[in-house]
Task: inverse folding
């Protein structure tokens, strides 16, 4: 679908009168619990397009109980991070790729496609206002969660005529409790995260909801994450919260970095793309994107 413009020149900002308390920026900082002072909102309807972008104090949303986001999971989101460099400037890591992926997710769910550059300018305005929330510690960042939800007032299963594009933000540290130490993952074949023709390549809430039970079962066995396998041959796809690579020696002795291809089942990670581009530029080992199986991983580890 064609992307629609967001008029950034009309952006309206209402600053908070009472700043929220900031958490300690250390290893006790939980993921996604402490939110910044402000949030971004842009309403859309099928006749008028996107309305005036607004930045206002972080608040609860008022929603009709019939909205498709609640009944049919017509909602998607992005995950991106802002950092402070050594000079105190705020940096975003390849945010254009996040905007592209966000648009792909919206399009897949019949939510409105937006101009990525416009949305990025709105997010930058939010960051400038909440810049004091961006940590300057190594391994810490401000996590941005742009989201789109269908808000039509109807129970009919049909493309939404109203939607809300919004963004909230929270400071984060290492994702796992053990910091940047290695984690244990459980290879999962009984449950399935994604399938051909589905939404595995999109960042939609329903992808994560169906992973909660397998994740809970894996946690009870002492594992940090689930490694999703696909098909009877147990092809390696991705881990619950990230893409996965293996560096191994092939049966003919070639050092190879391998990861699953973008075949519609896995999420096109920004870090994934960056690792592939850098590794290919180095030319130190073979870099491969193809379907590979747990049997191959076991053989390489033997």
Result:
């Amino acid at each position: 679908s064609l992307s629609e413009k967001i008029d950034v020149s009309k952006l309206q900002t209402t600053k908070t009168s009472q700043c929220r308390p900031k958490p300690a920026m250390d290893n006790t900082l939980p993921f996604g619990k402490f939110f910044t002072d402000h949030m971004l909102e842009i309403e859309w309807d099928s006749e008028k397009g996107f309305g005036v972008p607004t930045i206002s104090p972080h608040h609860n949303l008022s929603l009709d109980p019939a909205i498709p986001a609640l009944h049919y999971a017509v909602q998607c989101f992005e995950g991106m991070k802002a950092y402070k460099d050594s000079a105190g400037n705020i940096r975003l890591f390849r945010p254009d790729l996040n905007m592209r992926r966000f648009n792909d997710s919206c399009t897949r769910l019949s939510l409105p496609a937006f101009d990525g550059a416009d949305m990025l300018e709105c997010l930058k305005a939010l960051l400038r206002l909440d810049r004091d929330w961006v940590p300057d510690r190594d391994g810490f960042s401000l996590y941005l969660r742009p989201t789109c939800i269908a808000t039509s007032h109807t129970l009919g299963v049909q493309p939404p005529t109203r939607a809300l594009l919004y963004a909230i933000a929270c400071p984060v540290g290492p994702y796992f409790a053990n910091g940047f130490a290695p984690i244990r993952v459980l290879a999962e074949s009984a449950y399935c995260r994604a399938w051909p023709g589905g939404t595995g390549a999109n960042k939609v809430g329903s992808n994560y909801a169906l992973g909660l039970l397998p994740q809970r079962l894996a946690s009870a066995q002492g594992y940090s994450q689930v490694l999703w396998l696909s098909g009877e041959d147990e092809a390696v796809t991705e881990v619950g919260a990230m893409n996965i690579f293996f560096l191994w020696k092939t049966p003919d002795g070639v050092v190879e970095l391998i990861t699953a291809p973008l075949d519609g089942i896995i999420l096109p990670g920004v870090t994934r793309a960056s690792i592939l581009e850098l590794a290919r530029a180095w030319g130190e080992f073979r870099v491969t994107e193809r379907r590979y199986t747990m049997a191959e991983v076991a053989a390489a580890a033997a």
User: Anything to note?
Assistant: Residues 95-108 form the longest helix (14 residues). The mean pLDDT is 95. The chain has seven helices and 15 strands. The radius of gyration is 21 Å.
